[in-house]
């Protein structure tokens, strides 16, 4: 059958609001597709998000959280500061995804940033610090 590029004639759709909301809630709660590593990373991100004020107080903005594919059973967390990005690698103790996420978040929060296990640091030269002149003439 050749696609003629015509619009399909679809009649107006109607849903029962309660049934629709119940199905959306059911589908949203289904995490059976999620790997253990992804679930742990998602939960770690949620636990760290609850503490974003702590990171802001340190001059950091929390970025992404993901399984560290180069290190089995480790997780990477990125932080952005005024001139770049730092990636911290965390290795949890055995346990459930939630236990592992809580343990990693607590370890990060009780460890001074200068002792964090940094796996990468990128400096972004194109970003000017607030106290640096932006150029131009006076």
Protein model, in words:
- The chain is built from 4 helices and 4 strands, in the order αααβββαβ.
- The chain is of the alpha+beta class and 138 residues long.
- It has a domain at 35-123.
- A 4-stranded antiparallel β-sheet has the order 1-2-3-4.
- The protein is elongated.
- It starts with 16 loop residues before the first helix and ends in a 15-residue tail after the last strand.
Question: How does the major sheet shape up?
Answer: 4 strands, antiparallel
Q: What overall form do the CA principal axes indicate?
A: elongated
Order of adjacent strands in the largest pleated sheet: 1-2-3-4
What's the total number of strands?
4
Distinctive features:
elongated, alpha+beta, four-stranded antiparallel β-sheet, 138 residues, 4 helices
Please outline what is shown here:
The chain is of the alpha+beta class. 34% of the residues lie in helices and 20% in strands.
Write the layout of secondary structure elements.
Layout: H1 17-29, H2 36-49, H3 52-57, E1 61-67, E2 75-81, E3 84-90, H4 97-110, E4 118-123
Antiparallel strand pairs: 1-2, 2-3, 3-4
Helix pairs in contact: 2-4
């Amino acid at each position: 059958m050749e696609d003629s590029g015509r619009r399909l004639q679809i009649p107006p759709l109607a849903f029962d609001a309660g049934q629709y909301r119940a199905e959306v809630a059911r589908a949203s709660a289904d995490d059976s597709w999620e790997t253990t590593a992804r679930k742990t990373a998602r939960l770690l991100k949620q636990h760290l998000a609850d503490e974003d004020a702590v990171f802001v107080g340190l001059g950091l903005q929390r970025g992404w959280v993901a399984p560290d594919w180069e290190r089995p059973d480790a997780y990477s967390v990125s932080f952005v500061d005024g001139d770049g990005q730092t990636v911290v690698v965390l290795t949890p103790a055995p346990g459930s995804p939630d236990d592992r996420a809580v343990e990693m978040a607590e370890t990060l929060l009780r460890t001074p940033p200068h002792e964090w296990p940094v796996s990468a640091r990128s400096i972004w030269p194109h970003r000017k610090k607030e106290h640096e002149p932006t150029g131009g003439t006076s």
